[in-house]
Design brief:
Length: 426
């Protein structure tokens, strides 16, 4: 986050009206005794002006003779009965000195006093409030930073300028509930405007939700991260939390479909996930799919090594043999699937063809199976139809199919995330 540069506060002394023209000579006590007790409003007494004369201060600043300037400020602060305007002038000088020397112990109280003087124009007042908020933020005094950022929002015409640092102050100060409450509407407004939220904001939203144990909020943030900034880690976490760990998930039916989507979405799966996908594919009678999963794991360099190398090799041999047999015999099963009472055989036959890179043929058989009916899980069948259409290169058809998938022990969630993936690819 860009910070308000302290150099911006190194203001010319002339800007505070401290010039020879602004000095009003002391009134003769004999002429106007009533006025002798205090200097006129918005003036600086000559003896104080000598200490803070811009003509003398500027070369000292240029020469970085800060010790002399500090000495003059100290002497000025010792003057008794200073007027509010003289206080203002002294604090502006202290602010310039603190800013030039990066001394917040000097600059911050001086800046707060200048803000409280009531002598700043509205736009300058807002800038100074923002500067003080940022100084507290940089000093990691997040409660004070929040206080001043909120004051900026109240008094400025551009409250949105400090929305990001205010949110981060909430988060870094441990107020995760307020951080989450501020982030979500801002992110949604950005998306509504057709713009892309920052990854940092989305990560902060996810972390804030996680800190307050808001699982739904975390999942929302994760979905947005996958939509805008897809990565293997985000996709894996999303499929775990958004599908596999949700109540009602039918692992027996849809765990394999989780792996199928993951394989399509990520660059590389974990070794055990390639193995699980292969074993589930063999269980369900799709050896070609198993073979491809195993080969992908070997190509990724995560299978065939270590303590499980022999197990991987055995699984590979089993998948290769099954795939070879399936390629020889699959056509013979078409007649039996067509004569069956339900469409389950046709759906399975179609998916087998889809795994063999015969997408169009696979789509046709799955559609016949769905039309025939009698399926134990029609939503899962539609999910497989959409995946077959993806493999056939029919993305528009796949989108239309996935949009119809509902519930189904995880099928609806998987269809939703397939739509996210296809939108990214499109």
């Amino acid at each position: 986050m860009s910070q308000f540069r302290l150099a911006r506060l190194c203001l010319m002394l002339a800007a505070v009206g401290l010039s020879s023209a602004a000095v009003i000579p002391a009134v003769n006590a004999q002429d106007k005794p009533a006025a002798a007790a205090e200097a006129p409003k918005d003036s600086v007494r000559p003896e104080l002006f000598k200490l803070l004369d811009p003509a003398q201060i500027k070369p000292l600043m240029d020469a970085k003779n800060y010790a002399e300037i500090q000495s003059r400020v100290t002497q000025a602060e010792a003057f008794p009965n200073r007027t509010p305007y003289e206080d203002y002038v002294v604090n502006r000088m202290k602010l310039s000195l603190g800013s030039a020397t990066n001394n917040n112990a000097i600059a911050m109280p001086a800046l707060e006093a200048v803000i409280g003087s009531g002598r700043l124009a509205p736009n300058e007042q807002a800038d100074f409030i923002q500067a003080l908020a940022n100084m507290h933020y940089n000093a990691k005094d997040y409660p004070k930073a929040i206080e001043w950022f909120k004051r900026y929002q109240k008094e400025s015409t551009t409250p949105e300028k400090v929305a990001a640092p205010l949110t981060r102050a909430y988060y870094l100060g441990g107020d995760y509930a307020n951080a989450k409450a501020a982030l979500l509407p801002a992110i949604e407004a950005t998306e509504k405007a057709g713009q892309k939220p920052s990854e940092e904001d989305l990560r902060l939203l996810a972390s804030s939700a996680n800190k307050v144990k808001d699982d739904a909020g975390y999942l929302t943030a994760l979905e947005k991260l996958v939509a805008h900034y897809p990565s293997d880690d985000f996709w894996t976490d999303l499929l775990n939390r958004g599908v596999a760990r949700k109540s009602g998930f039918d692992a027996q039916t849809n765990m394999i479909n989780v792996y199928r989507l993951e394989a399509a979405a990520v660059k590389q799966m974990a070794a055990e996930e390639y193995v699980d996908l292969a074993e589930l594919s063999l269980r369900d009678g799709f050896p070609t799919e198993a073979k491809k999963a195993i080969e992908a794991g070997y190509a990724a360099g995560v299978l065939g090594k270590g303590a499980n190398a022999k197990t991987h090799a055995s699984l590979r041999d089993k998948a290769n043999k099954g795939a070879a047999d399936d390629a020889k015999n699959i056509a013979a099963g078409e007649a039996g699937a067509a004569k069956a009472k339900t469409g389950a055989g046709l759906v399975n036959l179609g998916w087998a063809y889809a795994t063999m890179d015969q997408g169009d043929k696979g789509v046709g058989f799955i559609q016949q199976g769905i039309a025939k009916g009698g399926l134990k899980n029609a939503e899962e069948a539609k999910l497989r139809l959409g995946m077959a259409q993806v493999r056939a290169g029919k993305k528009a058809d796949a989108i239309a199919t996935f949009q119809t998938v509902k519930g189904g022990g995880g099928a609806g969630d998987l269809a939703k995330y397939w739509l996210v993936l296809l939108a990214q690819q499109k």
